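re: ur question from yesterday

yeah so i grabbed the chain u mentioned. its 155 aa long if i counted rite. heres the sequnce exactly as i have it in my notes:
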Amino acid sequence: MVSTDLDDLDRQIIDVLREDARLSARAVARRLGVAAGTVGQRVARLEQSGVIRGYTVVVEPALVGRPLGFVVGLQIAQGTPLDGILDELVAIPEIDEVMVVTGRWDLLVNGRVADAAQLNDLLTKGLWQSPSFRHSETMVVIDDRRTASASPQTW
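ran it thru and got these structure tokens back, copy pasting raw so excuse formatting
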């Protein structure tokens, strides 16, 4: 992946869109004191170059029946191709994110379920049944703070 050079205006546009991705180019331009056409062109370039990969909705997990967050560290059998495992894991509705990591675990799996019984089923009837499964550690999330849209990042 080739790094894209971002200037201050690109970063400001990204920050505004991270706060509210529903804003029009005109509204972003008003906030930043630039022309709407400039914002539209910049956003199009950022999308085409892959800097902006998409737009999303952030939901409150408890209000959609998934209040219990979990993180599972997974060790997989050596020599197992990762692509198949990653595709298998991200297809599970309760799993929100899968990361390939270094250290004790091969993968970190983040997700949300309705309750402990659903988490137990996900583990015992799902993850642990995979032929590539070797060992895991499950952690229940008791609080989380997300940087997602609410706060601008330092670029």
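noticed a couple things. The domain at 8-48 is CATH 1.10.10.10 (Arc Repressor Mutant, subunit A). also The chain has two domains: 8-48, 61-141.
anyway ttyl
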